[in-house]
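Checklist before submission:
- one chain only
- standard amino acids only
- sequence pasted in full

Submission:
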Amino acid sequence: MKLLIRLSIFFAALSISSLPSSYSCNPKDKNTLLQIKKHFNNPKLLSSWDPQTDCCTSWTGIECTNGRVTLFSMANDDSVVGQIPDQIGDLPELRTLEMSFINLTGNIPRTITKLKHLVLIFLSWNRLSGPIPDYISELKSVTFLDISFNKFTGPIPGWLTQMPKLQTFQANNNSLTGPIPNSFGSFVGNAPNLFLPYNKLSGKIPESLSKIDFQAVVLKGNGFTGDGSMFFGGNKRTVQLDLSRNLFEFDLSKVKFGKSMALLDLSHNRIFGTLPRELTELRLERFNISYNRLCGKIPRGGQLQTFKSYEFAENRCLCGSPLKKAC
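Returned file contents:
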C-alpha cells in the first residue's frame, strides 16, 4: 500500500511539473544544475546535462514550469557517490526532490530549508546517516517525506507534528531509537501515515495517541512494549495497521475496529484474549495474528476463513477454521 501511495503522489507531481511551457531554462537554475553535476564528478546518469542544450526540455530528471526547475530526479544509479550538495537549495521553485537508489552519504544539508515550495522529498535507499535534522521542520509545504533504507540514528523527531501539510512519513529500515514522542498526541494538521518498521525503536506507546486518527501505521520489527490498543477505535478511519514483531501485550477481545480496516498484522507479539466477532464485518485484504497468546473459536464469516492457517498459527488455544484444530 505504501508503494502505491508513493507512486500516486510522485506521478501526480510529475504531471504537474511537466506542464507544457514555452519558457527556456532559467540561467541561474541551469548554472546550479551544472554545479551539482560537477559535485558528483559528471556521472553517466547526468550525461544529457549538456550546457549547450535547454535544461527544461533535454535534461534527464529535470522538469520545469515557466522556465524554473520544479522537479529534480536523480535515481537508480549506485555509481553516483557523495553527499547531497549544498547547491540543491539554489533551486527556489523546486517542488519535488528525488534522490533515491544512489549512494548518498552524510546528512541532509541545511540549505534544503531554502526550498520553501518543496512538497515531495524522496531520499530512500542511500547511506545517509546521523540524526534526522530538526531544520526539516521549516519546510511547511512538504506532504511526503521518505528517508527509508538509510542509516539515520537518534529519536523519531517530535517536530513532525509541526509540519502542517505532512501526509506521509517513511523512515523504515534505519537505526532510529527510543519511543514514539508524546507530541504525537497532537498534530497541527491531519495525522500523517507513519511507516517506521525495522528500526530500533522501543518503549510504550503514549496514551495520547488514542485520540489520533491515523490512516496507516506500520511499526513492524521494533521493540515496542505494553498496550497497542490505542491505535484501534470504532470511529477511526485506519486502513492499515501493522504492529507485528514487537512486544505488545493487550486484550484483543476488548478492541473496537473501524469499518475501513483492510490490512491488519498483529503477529509475533504477546496479545491475548479472543477474536472479536466484529472482525467478520471487515473487508480484510491482509490479516495475520500468528504467534500470540490468543484463545477461543475463530468467528465464522466475512473474510476470516479465506486466510491461510499459518496466519492464525502458534497461539495459545485458537481453534476452528481455517485451523485444523476443532473446537
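Reviewer check: The chain has a mean pLDDT of 94.
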